[in-house]
Amino acid sequence: MQAGDHVRKVVTKWGGRPHWEHDTTVVGTDEHGTWLGAPAGTLVSRPGVSFTATAAFVSVVPPDGAFVATFYAPNRSGPGDPVELYVDITTVPRWADGVVTMVDLDLDVVRGRSGRVWVDDEDEFADHRVRYDYPDEVVALATASLDRVHVAVRAGTGAFDPTLGRTWLSRLSAAAAC
């Protein structure tokens, strides 16, 4: 894939239940994975719900990691702008025919613009692992990925370096023009 290529990002929940999806543009690749971007105004939807993104965002899709990390540009159009980085713990993303898919495993690591880092949706993961009968290997994958990602986000290292997110956000408009 090359900068400017269009990719559909499709996220499901366990058992193939639909979740969020939207169109993106390849911004580029580096040692952390493929960076996909979407400008403000991008329609993000799932069955029964949709919204228009008020800020641009870029996501890094790692080649073999069980997460997708999304950096958000500052939202200059609204009051509140609490999230800089949102990391979904997922199955390992799969690529085919201009579409990247992954299963959202509920757990998230979030870094606010204040620098505060927290784990979100542990209660949802605990409920869903029983309700939807997540296999033991999926539970192990999710918890191990959460542990690694949480440490790296807190340290601001690797794919979770805030400077890296800003760099890829700055490249989004050029890639979208290709």
From TrEMBL:
Pfam hit, one: DUF402
InterPro entries in UniProt: DUF402, FomD-like_sf
Superkingdom: Bacteria
Gene3D superfamilies, per database record: FomD-like
Domain DUF402: 17-156
SUPFAM superfamilies: FomD-like (SSF159234)
Protein name: DUF402 domain-containing protein
